[in-house]
Amino acid sequence: MFEIFGIPSQALFGQLLLGLINGSFYALLSLGLAVIFGMLNIINFTHGAQYMMGAFCAYLLLQYFGINYWAALVIVPIVIGVLGILIERLFLQHVSKLDHLYGLILTFGLALIIEGLFRNYYGSSGQPYQVPEALQGGRNLGFMFLPNYRAWVIAFSLLICLATWFAIERTRLGSYLRAATENPTLVRAFGINVPRMVTLTYGFGVGLAALAGVMAAPIYNVSPQMGSDLIIVVFAVVVIGGMGSIMGAIITGFVLGIVEGLTKVFFPEASNTVIFVIMVIVLLVRPAGMFGRTA
Amino acid sequence: MMERVLDPLILQRRRETNASFVIAFAVMVALFALLSFVAYPVFLMQALCFALFACAFNLLIGYVGLVSFGHALYFGFAGYLSAYVAKHGTISFPFWFGKLIWLSIPLPAQSPALAVLVGTATAAVLGIIAGGIAIRRQGIYFAMITLALAQMMYFFALRAPFTGGEDGIQAVPRGRLFGYFDLSNEMTMYVFVLVVVLAAFLFIYRIINSPFGEVLKAIRENEQRTISLGYNTDRYKLVVFVLSATLAGLAGSLKALVFQLASLTDVHWTMSGDVLLMTLLGGLGTVFGPVVGAFAVIAMQNYLAPFGQWVLVIQGVIFVVCVLMFRRGIIGELAAFLRVKL
Questions:
Q1: C-alpha to C-alpha distance for A172 and B299, rounded to whole angstroms
Q2: ipTM, 2 decimals?
Q3: Any chain A CB within 8 A of the CB of B133?
Q4: Which residue in A2, A209, B293, B320 has the fewest CB atoms around it within 10 Å?
């Protein structure tokens, strides 16, 4: 046990770890938002609800079908992703030609419906979700205690983020995607089915949110409003990072998580607001965001 | 200024617009007078406050095309300040003179006019700050920034000592207006609220139909072209943002007096969603739409309250239906049917 700036190392690293965990979720969610925004040109307000559905889906699978965490990690993003594809086909494609405003309102309405339905059946209290057996316990690193599950969340979300970045920036499919983001009409002229790509992109972004939900289930309680408060912070993260770059979304997510964790140590009163304050400062200094391109 | 030459056709259309406005306004005032005999005064006053809130919101979304997702900030904080002034009568400002000093301005407590004034002024100041930050980005970012700023102030309201945290400011006295009218009488209070809301409504109508309002609509249609015509669009956007925030603050101040309560509900983001719903349902960019939308949504929330969380679901469904097949809203559809401007 030692102290840094008068703060016991346990507390400092403990909050840093929590910050990294939050940062993992910020990164996964803002990544999904950025990918969806790139293709569909809408800001997906349903993202928080889809994250919540991911957590609930994992909970229900375990509760009623005995399907464990590892299987849920694969099944849930697919199930919620398919639901997302349905939403895109049924609703979102009808507003793609309209003003941004309508996509925002539509997804906001969908988020209300989903949250209302879940609150109806599960109330506002949270449901517990067990940490999978293989990841229970933790290890003592000398300067702090590291729970295995939390280490796993950070490592796995980092892996997913980097894989997504690789898929979009370095593969052929990703290059189609980027091209379609720039100029959909031209890409269609090359014989690529852009509407299908848009649909699948939405499904993929939603799947990322659901995956974050599954990973969050053992850490936070599974509750209907777990998404709606988080999504507003993620919006601020997206504004800070700028939605122009995939890597930007990932880095901003993790860094802001850490900053938030540090604020909890040094100035706890401001821990809820620090990300918003950073957003204001970034807007004053660099209106386009840290990694954004000016529109 | 260049002298404006008006086409006779435009003049005629303007006269028709004026005529339909006068008729619709008279109908509205008559309805408010009649309703006071039938409905609960508190329900009516609540609906009126929200009608003003929605009209202020519509000024931004309907006429400039700016989607603010954080209007609860002005509504709620104005409510807090006016409730605080009406109840405690003192305002304290933190100042930094080497150490933190609270400078207190003692005000006569229980003066409702002053309370409303202070609340409205607070909203104006918040509007200048938030607007100055938010108009630096357009479109979707604007919505996200206003939402984030409002959420930040929500956490501030949760922690700040003067808001009373989870309890809010309760048992706010309504007091006597100008030392004469006793506002604890529901009917007197109703008349007070009605007069203020109608005056604000006419003010908004005047803004929309002024040369300033024409520039706002030009920004909505094509901001780049408006800039190329030599207008400083950022300044126009900031002014209208502050106007909208101020009027939202007026609505929030009145609501705090009506319910004798200022609470966290009014600064929460769900309130920003509610006002968006009212405006959308009534008709974006229509003068009377927000009023109709506010009455519809408030009535729905009151009557459906026993169904608990289904209210949320129903609101969501209304959003989706409005966006997918009913984008003009109630008044917008009615105006299109009657071929008039409402």
A1: 55
A2: 0.85
A3: yes
A4: A2
